[in-house]
Amino acid sequence: MVVTQMLNRDINSRFEDWLLSPRETLDFEVKQWLDMSDAESQGVVAKALIALENHGGGFLLFGYKENDDKSLSPDQNRPASLEPYLTDALNAIVKRRAEPPFHVEVILQRHPTSGDEYPLVRIAGTSKVPVRSDSATPGGSLKQHVYYVRAPGPESRGPLNAGEWDSLLRRVIMNQREENISLLRALLPTFATGVASQAPPTEADTLHAFAEKAKLKWNALNDALDASNQSKITHGTFSFAARIVGTSRNLDPRRILEINESARRYTGWPALVTLNHEKTRPRLVDGCIEAWLADISNPGVGYADFWRIDPKNGNFFLLRGYHEDSLDPSRFGKPGTLFELTLPVWRLGEFLLRVLDLADAMYDQPYEVLVECEWDCIAGRHLFSHNYRRHIPPYKSAESTVRTTGSFPQNVLRELLPEAVKALTKPLYEHFEFFVPPDSFFAEELSEMTKNRF
């Protein structure tokens, strides 16, 4: 189904390569095919899921086994049916074996060469209290009342010292953050209307000039692509730019790139994504860290990112095509006619969080964040929801380009992200026949996004 393919494509972009050269990490565990009707096998699965939930989220992949040399390869004992590995079956194990229970989601990941499907379990890691095992198995694969965590090795086991307990408790406290922020919003009911203030003209002009120079560079690169290239963007782009105003720590470009590569990913294709291939890896150009991702294994306008980080002046830029323009035209119409409702919130929210992660390392606190957003070629596009979670009339835009700006204190941007994103995207949505999403829309979508860990 086309909609399912779109939902899964971010995950596919990361894990197709992984299936060819697998390795376990603290947030990624692998199990061979198991007899899921066996209590001990269920205990093995429950232990892994509980540990990943307490770890703050991660993935469990079935169907790979460990060889004598510790490498991983596909397990040839493939079951006749994958039904015992799907979402309902695994959530039944969690409900029976974990306290409190939590939800997991299974996606069938197709191997890029063999075509075989492997169950990939996504664990959100959003529990607000530590999770423990609620029952023991006769053979001891799962012990009762153990708060399993992920530990170096990697392995799943109970905490062994105060540091591991502290890490577990800190994670669940962070998961209570939304409740605490809701209390803050209740105390400051008028704050949201004043989140975005007028940016200082000189700083805003500097940011705008940086963004325009980056667009000119991208235009030259995009124009040089052959018309048949699937990464050539012809139906419009969106772009985000940010500038940090504060005291710089003068980090060198290599260190900034390392921080960017290790930053948390909320989607499978995050803001300022790096790919270490010859034609796509970041390079230092005109004093900026620059990457252009047109030449990738799964090309498409929604993945042909062009981005820049200016280490010296604290400027950031990201440009991308619309995912909507890659959908099957026989089902969704011609490219350039759709505008997905939730993606502006997800893309902008993730960009701002990545900028904050980098700015925290590059600048002393406190600092200000100036933001400029632009969506072009939106005239004639109509709103739709790709996953049908939200129902909306097909409001259409008559305006071709919408640009918004804002200036935010660093602590406000992080703690009141939904209000900041609303301030920057509300003018965009209003151009679709005066449509204004409710406040809950921004909070709910960003909450859903920040549950993820890729």
TrEMBL record:
Domain Schlafen AlbA-2: 24-150
Name under which the protein is recorded: Helix-turn-helix domain-containing protein
Organism: Comamonas guangdongensis
Taxonomic lineage: Bacteria, Pseudomonadati, Pseudomonadota, Betaproteobacteria, Burkholderiales
